[in-house]
Amino acid sequence: MPLGVEAATKKLYTVVANQMKMRTEDLANEFLKLSVVNGFLAFVFTVPILDPALCIATPPGLFGCISTMDINWPGTWVLVAWIVWVLVAVLGALFFGVSYYFMAKFWNKTKANNLLSTLHLVIFEVGVFGACGLMAAIGYVGGSYIAHGGNAIVSSAVIAANIIPPLSTDPTNVLSDMPPVMEAAFIGLTLLGVLVGLINWYKLSSD
C-alpha cells in the first residue's frame, strides 16, 4: 500500500474512532443532570401520596384522611413507587454520574464509547421511569377505588381494565392482565440499562 494511502487510511480510522467516543466527564455531567431532573420528578410524584381525597399510602388521620379508612393494597404501591424512584432514579443516576467522574479524574479514563453511553442513559431512564410510573398508576387507580368504598379484590380487575387494556380475553393467558406484564418488562429494561452501563464502565479508555 502506498504511503499516502496508508496515512490517509490511518487518519480516517482515527477520525471515525474519535466520533465513536465521548468525554467521560461529559457523560458524568449528563447523569448528574438526570439525577437533578429525577429529583424534581420525585417531588411531583409526592403529590398523589399527599392527596387528601385519596388518602392512599398515608396513615389514617394525616393530610385530611378519614380515620375510618382502611389503607390496603394496592394504594400503598404509590409510596413504593416513590421510594423506588428515589433510590434507583435519583440516587442511581447520581451514583453513575459520580463514578464516571471519578474514573475520569482519578483513573484517567477520559473516553467512553458514544453508543454504549447513549444506550446506558436512555435505557436506564426509560426503564426506571416506566417501572415506577406504572407502579404508581397501579397504586393510584386501585387505591382511589378502595378509598371511595371499593373492594380490595375487585380493585385488581379495575386496575387491569383501566391502566392497560388486556390483549387477551382468556383469564388463563398472561396477556389478560397487562399491568404486571409491562411492569416486568420495564424492570427488565432498567436492569438491561444497568448492564450496559457496567459494560461501558469496563470499556472506558485513556485515549
Brief summary of the model shown:
The chain is an all-alpha fold and 207 residues long.
Folded structure, characterized:
- With 207 residues, this protein is an all-alpha fold.
- The protein has one domain.
- Helices cover 70% and strands 3% of the residues.
- A two-stranded antiparallel sheet has the order 1-2.
- It is elongated.
- It starts with a helix and ends in a 5-residue tail after the last helix.
Number of domains: 1
Separation, N- and C-terminal Cα atoms: 27 Å
Strand fraction equals under 5%
* Tally of separate helices: 6
Name the strands of the widest sheet in spatial order.
1-2
Calculate Rg over CA atoms: 23 Å
Instruction: Give the helix/strand class.
Output: mainly alpha
Classify the helix fraction into a percent range: 55-70%
- Average pLDDT confidence is 77
Count of DSSP E strands?
2
Helix and strand sequence = HEHHEHHH
- Give a quick account of the main beta sheet: strands, pairing sense, barrel closure: 2 strands, antiparallel
What characteristic shape results from the CA principal axes? elongated
Q: In oligomeric terms, what are we looking at? A: single chain
